[in-house]
């Protein structure tokens, strides 16, 4: 399904209407009844390849929308990951509306230009005077170690523990950088680095892939992307 700006705007208005219902809440909504749908963890090209589900002792701690860029440099003709930067927004109350609305917001984020996207978030923020920013995601200098720092001081320093292609029908990205959605991931903590979070899944990805084929650009390419990060803590 293709989401146009108009669809996203309509969904925003729809969600604003829902969120404006009696006793509205915009951040910190309960996640207790939310689980990752099984099919989201299955490789769409090979059903025997799956991301392992959360362990029985892991509790869903946050779902955040990450919006930013995946960076690449061209090394000997090969597009090579060179870190990423994203702002993390609390998506819990979007899930309280519906998982579809959370998906629309994730796809919508990558389709809008940064100022317009921020304007969308800003609109909700201003209207309800709520804090949506839940943290930041970036890489350590080695470009192989993803870090997440949440505003409540929870943190995660990890590595890839599982990878499958993006969901079928994922948003391919913002033109002219619509080269496809980055893979779904399971991230696990690096030993001894002080993570207070036990697992992070990157799901419902949109955009972020590098141009296909042999590269010959100079410097760094910054490809806009968005994703849902599902954050778990061991209990
Ligand atoms: C599908 O995934 C399984 C498990 O990872 C792997 O053993 C198998 O080779 C894959 N099949 C194909 C056709 O790639
Ligand atoms: C990646 O690109 C962003 C711009 O979107 C930039 O702020 C950041 O410094 C870059 N990160 C790295 C590791 O080069």
Characterise this structure.
- This protein is of the alpha+beta class.
- The protein has helices at 5-19, 92-97, 99-111, 114-128; strands at residues 58-75, 78-90, 133-139, 146-150, 155-164, 184-189, 199-207, 220-234.
- It has an eight-stranded antiparallel beta barrel.
- The protein has one domain.
- Helix 1 (5-19) crosses helix 3.
Quick recap of the structure?
This protein is of the alpha+beta class. It has four helices and eight strands, in the order αββαααββββββ.
Number of helices: 4
End-to-end Cα distance, whole Å, is 38 Å
How are the strands of the biggest sheet laid out side by side?
A: 1-2-3-4-5-6-7-8
Number of strands: 8
How would you classify the quaternary structure?
A: single chain
Averaged pLDDT: 86
Which structural category fits the helices and strands?
Answer: alpha+beta
The figure for the number of domains is: 1
Note the main sheet.
Answer: 8 strands, antiparallel, barrel
Cofactors, ions, other ligands: 2-acetamido-2-deoxy-beta-D-glucopyranose
Report the radius of gyration as a whole number of Å: 17 Å
Topology diagram in text:
Layout: H1 5-19, E1 58-75, E2 78-90, H2 92-97, H3 99-111, H4 114-128, E3 133-139, E4 146-150, E5 155-164, E6 184-189, E7 199-207, E8 220-234
Antiparallel strand pairs: 1-2, 1-8, 2-3, 3-4, 4-5, 5-6, 6-7, 7-8
One 2-acetamido-2-deoxy-beta-D-glucopyranose is lined by residues 46, 48-49.
């Amino acid at each position: 399904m293709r989401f146009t700006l108009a669809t996203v705007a309509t969904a925003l208005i729809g969600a604003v209407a829902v969120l404006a219902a009696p006793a509205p809440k915009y951040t910190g909504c309960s996640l207790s009844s939310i689980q990752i749908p099984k099919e989201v963890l299955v490789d769409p090209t090979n059903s025997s390849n799956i991301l392992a589900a959360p362990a029985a002792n892991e509790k869903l701690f946050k779902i955040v929308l990450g919006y930013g860029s995946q960076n690449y440099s061209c090394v000997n003709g090969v597009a090579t990951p060179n870190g990423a930067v994203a702002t993390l927004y609390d998506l819990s109350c979007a899930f309280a509306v519906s998982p579809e609305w959370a998906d629309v917001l994730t796809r919508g984020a990558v389709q809008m230009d940064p100022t317009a996207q921020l304007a969308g978030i800003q609109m909700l923020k201003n209207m309800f005077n709520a804090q949506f920013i839940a943290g930041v995601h970036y890489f350590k200098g080695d470009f192989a170690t993803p870090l997440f720092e949440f505003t409540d001081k929870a943190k995660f320093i990890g590595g890839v523990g599982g990878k499958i292609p993006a969901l079928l029908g994922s948003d391919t990205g913002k033109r002219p950088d619509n080269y496809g959605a980055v893979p779904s991931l399971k991230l696990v903590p690096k030993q001894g680095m002080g993570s207070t979070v036990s697992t992070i899944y990157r799901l419902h990805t949109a955009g972020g892939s590098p141009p296909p084929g042999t590269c010959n650009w100079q410097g760094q390419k910054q490809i806009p992307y968005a994703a849902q990060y599902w954050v778990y803590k061991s209990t």
